User: Fold this.
Amino acid sequence: MGSCHPALKQHIGSAVARDELIFKKSLRVQMDALVLGPLRHLQVCSQQSGMTLDLPYAILIDGLDECKGERCQRELLSVIGLGLLVPDLPFRIFLASRPEMAIRTALEPGGLLHGRANHLQLSDKYYAGKDMCRYLRKRLQDLSLRVGNPNWFTEKDIDTLVEGASGQFIYVATAFKYISEPRGSPPDRLRIVLTWKPQDANPARPFETLDILYTNILLNAKEAYEAVDTHHGRDFLVLFRIYQINNYPDITVPNSGINVSVEALGELLGLEGNAAEILISDLHSLVALQGDSLRPWHKSFYDFLDEETRAKSFFVPRDHAYAHLAKCAMQYITQYPLKPYLGM
Assistant:
């Protein structure tokens, strides 16, 4: 909001200058100090001057379910309900989220947002198949120049991918990223993805087709990585799991994260300097290196890695990953012993 309104930006800057530790305080305190306080001060100034307060009124929040932990989700919903959805502020809030417990509770009778929010359940009344077809058709057409053939895919191919998505847009988005990766041939990869189908339509496994996609991409990446001579004896899945949990600790276990730079982690594991880039060479459809963090394109992939019932033979328990890291750390210590202290 401050970037759209210079006066508001100035008031927000003043609030930060008054309390440099504001970003370490609770979300509610931050909302009061950085948003509500400056807004109301600006409202008073506008009324006194007779000028109209011109602000962006729509606030879009996507992926609310990706806030780590139910407590954080409840806190954010509380801040929205008690801070922004009040009569003297003109905001309209658009939330997009999977129906996690905190969100469902807030929308149910007695919940903070009950009667104050219009709930559009896409999975119940909205069929995303047509949008998926349009998305895939446009994306695949964009690859035609690279392929050298405008007819390299068919409408039946698109229909098959959409049918396999089972209403999950993330499936077709991930499938396209895999198909379009520069290391492979789009027609060959399209044929491969079209063969990845569930064994049966089991309603108790709603993510089955997505899990098959994740499993096969991981399998191809594992085989390509472990086939390199210099990677002999390395376990691709264990190494990738360590990089994954480096920035994504188990929120139910205090101090369970590693949280070191990818360069330091590679050195500790006894890997080459650009180990992280090499490790994800065939996983760019699922993850990306952003600074010192390995980030998923979609949270569902890390959910898959964390659940043994979904990842199956590709599941690596956190304890196993920590044990391998500890073993490498001990080897690192023995290779680089401390030099004896030489007193004067």
